[in-house]
Amino acid sequence: MPISRADIVTESGTELMNRLCKHWAHKLHVEQDEGHARVAFDEGSCLMQAQNDKLVVALEALDDASLDRLEQVVDEHLARMAGEEKLDIVWEN
Questions:
Q1: Which domain holds residue 60?
Q2: CATH number at residue 26
Q3: Residue 63: pLDDT above 90?
Q4: Model-level pTM greater than 0.70?
């Protein structure tokens, strides 16, 4: 299973993670506790860990094409949830 990871520098990692989880919980299975979350997609999963100065996001997918789609979905949703804050998201796989 291909894996991708991004360390996103932000002071609002917890808020971003909470917004994403609340948004996705309407359609997807979301597990969340303090500082950590897991979102299950049909083609893989998204793990998030909020730290003081960053949000760590790890994606695991069924195949490379699914991983590319998940990266795009997470990118778009993070940008939306961040509002005015500009996030620099670089995926490493």
A1: 3-82
A2: 3.30.310.50
A3: yes
A4: yes
